[in-house]
Write a structure and sequence with these properties.
- The structure is a single chain.
- The chain is an alpha/beta fold.
- It is 50% helix and 18% strand.
- It is built from 20 helices and 19 strands.
- β15, α15 and β16 form a beta-alpha-beta unit.
- α2 packs parallel to α3, α7 runs antiparallel to α8 and α13 packs parallel to α14.
- The chain is rod-shaped, with a radius of gyration of 54 Å.
- The N terminus is likely disordered.
Length: 611
């Protein structure tokens, strides 16, 4: 790399000497070696020349008229532009003091006159070499500094990117942790975080035995109806609203969590007794009753609440939550929109419930289920019209178990469809057998109860049709009994199923009419052909006139709409006569016969309706 301005020159040398012969000799010598040479006869001219253009090296005579070499050197060293120009002094003096002074003022070398040309050339070459090396080092240092700066800038940029990346990663990690412990819809703590906090309070109880806390397990009533009728958007809005409302009903130190679906949990920290939990439950009930979160709909939500107290005796957070859940189900069984407190009786009931659920899963496989048949009679003639089919469970250890005890469990654990299919198949098989054996009962029919859960299956009509085909039964020989609860589920699905059953010409009976909502819209919106009056009205109509009027009204209403009437729970002849006078077509009850095993029902068929 060429560090000099002119590529053909080794550098510029300024010779300052008042002796012309010295100037000529040194100028010729250096020029012949490739240097550019400038000359000055005194110090003043030298300084003027240097102002015009800086030389690379100065050969400076010490003893000159006017301004000597020391003064010139001092002047140059005081100027930041010229202070680094190397100066070789020329002098005829041999005194050591002068050499010392020459170096003291800043000279880099000293040549004694008369000089040898070769010595001068060697010293100039040495200094120019040093200068070249210094310039190269300076240039290399500058380049190195640039590279270091570029590298430093690059490292700083990378460090900045790394810091930003770490901050972003930290944010993502924090969000992942938050999302893992919170519900995405309500932003409340989820089940995992809730249980962790319960565990923390259990540990605190073990350290401080007097410490107590409470868990409230909350389930929104009729939430599925909201989702199915108004859509999931309305259901989500209700969940968010309830979560915010629950937070307003508790202290900041308490925890409100969404446990899943329409279930919420509240953890009451550090309570004195169960009264605090009860007051909180009552506050929630009251606030919900005053609320209407769904715009344009006259709806106030309600909730069933289970309460359990945590203290030093508790060991397991999951068990506590389960116990609160059990108490919540007890509240629902009591009529919803209320609370129940967990106790050992509920615990024992839950254990029995689990045992029934476990045994129920094996019951069909082990042929433990039975169908009982209760006679349905034509009231005016007292002729046998058919049977209502009622399932019974012959438990190997517990004996005969009522459907009131195991049907709700079957609905909850998803076994009701299997049980329902079995009852339908067995009832139709038995009916066909009776029709074949007894020709005078070829028009005998059966009534089969269907759970609302079964009406969630859109393929139900096809299943029923297939069973009728398998058993070679006419559709009108089967009567499907439903309750008003069917209409509280998905109305669209229910409507489609009932419409298909109507096309198959399968009669639909509305059971327990008058005990539920008894909406008149059900009677004209859906293809219902039979109304069954609940037995509670029949039993009371002789003692209380209002029940008689209810029976009259239902009968008249049904007839006006072209429907047949079946009265349940007939126990006396007086009740029978009253119903005959009202024009009620059919009836069933202990007056005609209790639910019978198939073999006993067959004997009844043998002796009945013979001309």
């Amino acid at each position: 790399m060429n560090i000099f301005p002119q590529q053909s020159s080794l550098g510029t040398v300024l010779i300052v000497d008042d002796v012309l012969e010295n100037l000529d000799l040194l100028s010729q010598t250096l020029t012949s070696q490739g240097y550019q040479v400038r000359c000055a006869k005194n110090g003043y001219l030298a300084l003027m020349s240097i102002k015009h253009e800086l030389p690379d090296l100065i050969l400076l005579d010490i003893k000159m008229p006017g301004m000597n070499g020391y003064q010139v050197c001092q002047n140059l060293k005081e100027n930041y532009k010229t202070k680094d120009i190397p100066i070789i002094f020329l002098s005829s003096a041999y005194e050591t003091e002068e050499k010392i002074q020459a170096f003291a003022v800043g000279g880099v070398d000293y040549i004694t006159k008369p000089f040898e040309v070769a010595e001068v050339l060697a010293r100039v070459n040495t200094q120019m070499g040093l200068l070249k090396t210094q310039l190269e080092l300076k240039q290399l240092n500058q380049e190195l500094e640039k590279r270091i700066k570029r590298r430093t800038d690059e490292l700083e940029r990378l460090n900045q990117e790394l810091r930003l990346e770490n901050e972003e990663r930290k944010k993502i990690q924090e969000k992942l942790i938050y999302d893992a412990l919170h519900d995405s819809l309500t932003n409340l703590p989820n089940r995992t975080l809730f249980i962790d906090r319960v565990k923390m309070l259990i540990r605190h109880c073990h350290r401080f035995p007097s410490f107590q806390f409470a868990i409230l397990f909350i389930d929104l009533d009729r939430f599925k109806l909201i989702n199915d009728s108004l859509g999931h958007h309305a259901g989500d809005r209700l969940l968010v609203f309830c979560g915010q409302l629950f937070q307003k009903c508790v202290r900041e130190s308490d925890t409100v969590a969404r446990l899943g679906g329409d279930e919420f949990g509240i953890l009451l920290d550090n309570i004195s007794d169960v009264t605090h939990a009860i007051d909180t439950a009552e506050t929630i009930k009251m606030q919900l009753s005053k609320s209407s979160p769904l715009f344009n709909h006259h709806f106030s939500p309600s909730a069933s609440i289970g309460i359990v107290i945590g203290n030093y005796q508790c060991q397991n957070a999951t068990d506590l939550l389960r116990n609160a859940d059990i108490a919540m189900y007890r509240a629902k069984e009591m009529g919803k929109a209320r609370y129940a407190i967990f106790n050992q009786e509920l615990h024992q009931q839950a254990i029995q419930r689990l045992e029934i659920e476990s045994d129920l899963k094996k019951a069909l496989a082990f042929n433990e289920m039975l169908v009982y048949y209760q006679p349905i009679v034509e009231l005016q003639t007292k002729r046998l019209k058919g049977f209502e089919c009622l399932i019974r469970w012959q438990h190997p250890k517990k004996g005969l178990i009522s459907p009131l005890e195991f049907i709700p469990i079957a609905e909850e654990c998803g076994l009701i469809s299997s049980l329902g299919d079995w009852v339908l198949q067995e009832s139709c098989r038995q009916l066909k057998q009776w029709q074949t054996r007894y020709s005078h009962h070829s028009e005998l029919s059966i009534n089969v109860n269907f759970s609302p859960k079964q009406f969630e299956d859109i393929y139900l009509p096809q299943t029923i049709h297939n069973v009728l085909l398998d058993n070679e039964l006419e559709p009108h020989h089967l009567n499907i009994e439903i309750t008003e609860n069917v209409f509280l589920s998905n109305n669209i699905t229910v409507s489609k199923i009932l419409s298909q059953l109507d096309k198959l010409q399968i009669p639909i009976s509305l059971d327990d009419f008058g005990t539920g909502y008894s909406s008149l819209s059900y009677l004209h919106r859906f293809p219902i052909s039979v109304i069954k009056i609940d037995g509670s009205f029949i039993r009371q109509m002789q003692n209380h006139n209002k029940y008689l009027e209810i029976v009259k009204t239902i009968t008249t209403l049904g007839h006006t709409l072209g429907m047949k009437i079946i009265a349940e729970g007939i126990e006396t002849e007086r009740q029978l006569h009253t119903l005959q006078e009202l024009g009620c077509e059919f009836g069933q009850g202990y007056f005609f016969g209790k639910p019978l095993q198939a073999s006993v029902a067959e004997k009844l068929i043998q002796i009945s309706n013979k001309d």
